[in-house]
Amino acid sequence: MQRATTSMHHRNWTARSIMALTLAILMVFAAMPSRSYAADTVTDLSFDTTASTITVFAADEPYYLNLYATLSGASSQIDVTDSAAWKSSNTSVAKVSQGTITGVAKGTAKISATYGGYTKSITVTVDDLYDSIQIMSNNSGAPDEASVQLGQEISYDLTGLKSGVTSNLTNAASWSSSDTSVATVEEGAVTLLSAGTATITASYKGKTDKIKLNVLSPYKSVTLSGPDLLEFTVGDASVDLTATAVFQNGSTANITQDAEWTSSNTAVATVENGKITPLITGTATITVSHLGASDKVTIAVRQGTQELKLTPSSDLFLQLQDAPVVITATALELDGSTPNVSSSADWTSSDIMVATVTNGVVTPKGIGTATIKASYKGAARSIKVTVYPTVTALTIKDTDQKVETFPDQTGTLPQVTATTFGGDAVTVTPLVTWTSSNNNIVSIDSGKWKAVATGTAVLTASVNGYTAAVTITVNNKPLTLIAAQSELSLIIGKDYSFPQVRVVYENGQEEDITEKISWKSSSTNLLIQSSGLKGLSSANATLTGTFLNKTVKISVTIEEEVVKLIADPTSLTLNPKKSKSLKVKAFYKSGKSVIVSTKVNWSISDDAIAEFTGNNTLKALSKGTAVITGTYQNKSVTIALTVVPKLKTLVLSEKSLKLTIGDAKALKLKAFYDDGTYIDQTENAVWTSSNTSAVTVVNGIIVAKAKGSSSIKAKIDGKTVTLRVTVK
Hints:
The chain is flat. It is mainly beta.
């Protein structure tokens, strides 16, 4: 009856959808201005069943209950199932959502629906579909716990009881195992996998039943024939093992063909139905198992020979047109003998498109590299074979064609490049043969050269009649490098020669190595060219020169070009032991000016007169004159220097004068110094008149202009002398 009701409500569900569509259309019309909203008032609610109580089953199909509303002014009801608010008085018994009622557990609950201020309720009784379910074994109820043996075939049924009526639920129920490694179950059929405990559970519509299985092995033990350790050498024949099972009653059986055999390392040894086959050196564990009992044996596979040697043993470098190369494989057997095993060894090529191998005969087939491997009784050796195309015109980089070194130094032979028939460049360094023009100066061994004694030797690389050469000069061992300049000043954009450098050897000899030294710059703004240096933009850089593993460093300043230098002062008078800082301003091409006094290269025409005690600090030494020259960026300035003794006193030729208007008088000024000498300083002094309207003075010549008086002063080197002049 329930299922008929359910089908009926499925049909009502479609009708409900049609009613919902009708309601939507009515709502559109209700929105029109000519329609009154009062006509939509709910006046009553009703379900699609007149029964006061409905029955559903726990964990069964849901029951679909529709709700209809009666509206004032409408001749028919509308479906409001989806719009109403639904509620269950006891959700542990029954749940409801938009009219869909689901039974949870046996009991009674009231289902209510509220819409438009009205509430409608109905009583729901939830019953179990079956009063009980039971796992059956051979048409009898199965026990709560049972002991079974691996290998047994076990099958259970599940029956449901309702009001005295029994139903077979085996295929409809849900079956599970608590431990699928011990036993699995499908539609009541149990598969026993291993010894242990597993609980089999059957569930249907909220009811469950279960049985605990204790799974046992029918055997006490399984034993393998032979020792616990089986030893082989590579190449040995297979060995057959027998597996014997001992039953619980003490009887035995041969289970070799029925048991499961496994190897822990199939690369070392395989096993099938007890037959063990050794493959390569190593160890493996062979395990036999059947119906919960097992046994195992350890396998050790050793080399059948002590060692294998290939001749030649070094990698091969061939050209495609070269004839096949024979590689000989020699074994050191366990008895100490050393037979040629080339024909019995197993030969392989990692890339047969590059090279093939048969009994040790290697044939080049294509451009590339392949590994040739020989295996014999577990021992193996391999070499690489590189095949090059036919090449012409060998070349070595310019920077590698000349080498400077000293005795006992070694170096790697340079890379050699060749041109193929198609014009491609290919590195053929391993392919070439090297020779030395003088092994007593430079010898060659294993891809390296060694300087033996001072002198020059030419190393020649050759292949197919083509050659390339490297010249190695062996010098005495260097002690130090000395640069002619420790600092360089470069003008942006101008080219400069490399600074001069000489080497001092340990034997005391010296040599100009300006043309041999290698240079490196710390800044990209200092460009090192084959012919010299060039500054690219303003920067400070370090220029490092290297020769025979010795280095020398030079500080480099790169700046704008200077167009003019101005010195301040242009002439200078100093007393002995007095110092003066010289000032030079540089005017650059861009128009800016900078004080460069400390950057100027200073020189003195007479070192006895003065000396520089700092970058731009001049110190007077003795009486005399000299010319100071400052040079910067090939521009120069000069300063006239006069060194005089220290002035003690000034003496005028007249003490006082009385003149008439128009008179003129020439005075002489003598300066007396601490060394007892004097100098006429008339033209060097600064002359002033206190009353220039009455008396004027120029370079010691006094002229009377008008009546009056004046004080005439002569000043030099901070000292002053005064003369009173009266004009009448």
